[in-house]
Specification:
This protein is α/β, with parallel strands linked by helices. α31 (675-691) packs antiparallel against α39. The protein is elongated, with a radius of gyration of 31 Å.
């Protein structure tokens, strides 16, 4: 750690060189810009610092809202425990700026006596009792992490058992064991399948925003650019636009590979602890990432700690249950199960909370509290809070009165957490109850702007109410500002525990819920405007709960398309299935059927890439689309459906059926007289004819496909002719024209490269590998196999052919030892796919 002058203003000290801010021995994490604002104020103690001066000093290179200094100062006051009305550190000069009013002393690093313990923090550390064995075990696993043995640990237990407090206590202890990077992400209950990798993106984004963490951004840019493009807080608008353009078509494999490597790189110089809370609400992709990290054998000083409620995962058949089982079979993860507290633990809690010299005075009260709470820590704390509020504090020395109150007045001492939360809610003012009810509709985390819309009240009033509740530590905690694309900036908050949100939501009548969901959806829809697809999942949820099926369908389809663009195929499947469920609830009409055709086609296309071309669900989706297209008599739609069904038949090796479907598709294209349709129909029918060894007929259809192809036609059907020239090389070669085959292949590859369409570029290289293999051109075969492998990283459907082509290329070069299992039957093809030429025909059919 570099040495330099330290700014001291007790009980705080600011280390500008190492970008650290301390209270006693506890480091306080600040966002980068918030740290820079504090540093500027401390560098000018007693001086008036105008907002303009802060903007020039901290945001010199970017254009931001004039409210940004105020936002950072609000965060600083929270960190300092300062009040705007009675400031001890930062004074507001009305309409002009701010003044740092505390005395600041400059001390060199060496002047701070390292042997003397730092002053004690006035902040309340997490109070953990009855967890000594679990903490010792977690510390032992961390010792292995420091030796380069990665660990994945799940801290499990029922709601209110104290998982978050236990994890926080562990994190606080790490400072005594050397430098460490700690990042936290929170899974929240989402709607539908949820946003892919949400808690991981949140964790890394927070880590990258911390002062002195430019190294994090550097490593993400190097190892995980696709991920970095999804973290707007770590980029300028220009950088974000450039990176998103470069990463439009991403796949699951690419995302997993990037992040596993990035996490290992982050843990290379400093141990990394990644905390992911409430995994029972996690999206599927985050679980895949955890599994991928756990299975890697490379050395890494990496610890992933995840909390979850097993009962919740079981009740909702969450994939976390299956993943835990699979990892557990191979001992890829460890589990810490937190149990209910016993009477001794309750006694220890009372002694620590009320600073008793001896726990004897609580011997009669602890059993009574334990009987009422069953040892649930959350409920235990709530009951003790209740006694204190009732004037029966355990520290008063009158334990008998407290015990009698718990035993005699059952209605005043609730029997369950739900009753306790309801009682505490009803003790609030009507205004406070109303804002909490509105917040419960938004979710476990929420913006004051959304709640204000639900209640149809001014945002300032709602923010003030939540701020008051947060300061009093009632129900909610401040969670930083939230900004929407329309310029709305509002305070963000979250419930202390998901139980609070769930219980308050359940207390509302169905009619009230519908109205609130509708108002929130309308406001968020306006707030996001043209970028509404970024919150499409949430909007779909709100409109669905508001019984506005048309709007819910609209945003579910947007969410599905967004998931496809990001390579989240499992999430896309769920969105499209939910869309179909809602469509079936609408009255029958041509418009309804037209929408279902589009969604069934989208679902079939996703299934074709994620499951396989021959999967029965893929066939069902295209079959339903065909039924509706025939019912409506829509030739264009029918043509697309027939092409989809033909691809399923090709993938299954049902070439007679594929020929029938291809012929029907060609008839429909001729009826439409659309050049793009004719191009696609001829090209795809030729692929099936190739599989049936009808090479002359295939060549004729490919020549016709090429005659109808037009470079500027960017439609789905027009794209189906991109590979016509490359594919035509195969029948030309097999009919005895090798030179012509080489010419067609080169022309076809140039066409595919010009169009820069990942899928059809992969198809062209697949044909190229086959032609080069037939010609015994080992070097060319290897080039095509390598190119196809690169495409497969983004289009997993090609992985089987990439492996097989690589195996053949290595054999042609005489490298038999290196081919390994690349030529094993089926290769790495997804379940249900066929290897070799039949499989290849299915890929392009």
């Amino acid at each position: 750690m570099a040495n330099g002058p330290i700014h001291v203003f007790p009980p705080f000290r600011l280390d500008p060189v190492n970008a650290q801010f301390w209270r006693g021995d506890k480091e306080i994490r600040l966002r980068r810009k918030t740290f820079d604002v504090l540093r500027y104020l401390v560098d000018h103690p007693g001086e008036l610092v105008t907002k303009a001066a802060l903007l020039d000093a901290v945001w010199a290179e970017v254009i931001v809202s004039d409210s940004m200094p105020a936002t950072c100062v609000a965060e600083l006051r929270k960190a300092l425990g300062d009040e705007a009305k009675t400031p001890r550190f930062i004074e507001t000069v009305h309409r002009r700026g701010y003044r740092f009013i505390s005395d600041v002393k400059i001390a060199a690093t060496q002047e701070l006596d390292p042997e003397r313990p730092p002053p004690a923090s006035n902040g309340l550390a997490p109070m953990v009792v009855g967890r000594e064995q679990e903490m010792e075990q977690l510390q032992d696993w961390y010792s292995h992490v420091l030796q380069g043995q990665r660990r994945v640990v799940f801290v499990v237990g029922e709601a209110g058992i104290g998982k978050t407090t236990f994890i926080q206590s562990f994190l606080d202890s790490l400072a005594q064991r050397g430098a460490v990077r700690v990042s936290r992400g929170q899974c929240v209950e989402q709607y539908g399948s949820g946003e892919r990798y949400m808690p991981v993106l949140e964790a890394l984004s927070r880590l990258g925003q911390e002062p002195g963490n430019s190294r994090v951004i550097e490593l993400l840019n190097r190892f995980a650019p696709t991920w970095l493009s999804q973290m707007p807080a770590l980029q300028t608008p220009e950088e974000r636009a450039r990176m998103q353009a470069q990463n439009e078509d991403v796949t699951r494999n690419l995302m997993l590979r990037e992040m596993t490597e990035a996490l290992e790189a982050l843990a290379a110089d400093v141990p990394l602890v990644l905390v992911l809370e409430d995994l029972h609400w996690s999206d599927f992709s985050t679980l895949e990432l955890i599994s991928a990290v756990a299975r890697r054998t490379e050395s890494a000083r990496l610890l992933i700690v995840g909390s979850n409620r097993p009962v919740e995962a079981l009740a909702y058949e969450h994939p976390l249950r299956t993943m835990s089982h699979e990892l557990g079979l191979h001992r890829y993860y460890e589990e810490l199960s937190l149990k209910l507290l016993n009477e001794k633990d309750v006694t220890s809690y009372l002694a620590r909370r009320f600073a008793a010299d001896s726990p004897v005075k609580f011997d009669s009260l602890a059993p009574a509290i334990h009987a009422r709470t069953d040892g649930n820590p959350l409920f235990m704390v709530s009951v003790v809070d209740y006694l204190v509020e009732a004037g029966l504090s355990p520290s008063s020395g009158d334990a008998g009165a407290a015990v009698e109150a718990l035993r005699s007045f059952g209605l005043d001492a609730p029997r369950s957490i739900r009753e306790m939360i309801e009682r505490n809610l009803h003790q609030l003012q009507a205004e406070e109850q109303a804002v909490l009810e509105g917040a419960s509709i938004v979710g476990a985390e929420f913006s004051a702007a959304s709640v204000a819309a639900a209640l149809e009240r001014p945002q300032r009033e709602v923010e003030a109410c939540f701020t008051r509740l947060s300061r009093q530590k009632q129900f909610v905690t401040a969670n930083g500002p939230v900004e929407w694309p329309d310029g709305t900036v509002a305070a963000g908050f979250r419930f202390h525990h998901a139980l609070y949100q769930e219980i308050i939501y359940d207390l509302l009548s169905p009619a009230d819920r519908m109205d609130l969901h509708r108002l929130i959806a309308a406001r968020e829809e306006t707030g996001y405007g043209e970028r509404a697809d970024e919150v499409a999942t949430e909007l779909a949820h709100h409109y669905s709960r508001a019984n506005d099926r048309m709007k819910a369908i609209k945003y579910l389809r947007q969410a599905g398309r967004r998931a496809v663009r990001r390579g989240a195929t499992a999430e896309a499947e769920n969105h499209y299935r939910r869309t179909i469920e809602l469509l079936t609830e609408l009255p029958e009409s041509a418009a309804r059927d037209h929408q279902e055709i589009e969604v069934q086609m989208a679902l079939g296309t996703v299934l074709r890439g994620s499951r396989s071309w021959s999967h029965q669900e893929t066939g069902r989706a295209f079959a339903r689309a065909e039924e509706l297209a025939r019912k409506l008599g829509e030739t264009d739609q029918l043509l697309r459906v027939l092409m989809g069904q033909k691809s399923v038949a090709d993938g299954n090796g049902q070439f007679k059926l594929a020929l029938d479907l291809g012929t029907l598709a060609l008839l429909a294209a001729e009826h439409s007289r659309d050049r793009a349709a004719l191009c696609g129909a001829h090209a795809r029918l030729a692929a099936t004819l190739m599989a049936c060894a009808q090479f002359t007929e295939a060549r004729d259809h490919l020549e016709l496909a090429d005659s109808f192809y037009h470079e500027d036609n960017r439609t789905e059907l027009g794209a189906m002719g991109i590979d016509a020239l490359a594919l035509a090389a195969i029948p030309s070669l097999l009919l005895g024209f090798p030179d012509r085959a080489r010419q067609l292949l080169q022309a076809g590859l140039r066409r595919a490269q010009r169009r820069d369409h990942p899928f059809w570029l992969g198809v062209a290289h697949m044909w190229g590998g086959m032609v080069s293999g037939f010609l015994r051109d080992a070097d060319r075969a290897l080039e095509h196999a390598q190119a196809l492998g690169r495409v497969a990283a983004r289009q997993p459907v090609f992985q089987c052919m990439a492996d097989q082509n690589m195996g053949r290329a290595l054999m042609l070069q005489g490298r038999w030892q290196e081919r390994g299992g690349l030529l094993a039957p089926g290769g790495s093809a997804p379940q249900g796919k066929r290897p070799a030429l039949a499989y290849a025909m299915g890929q392009a059919g």
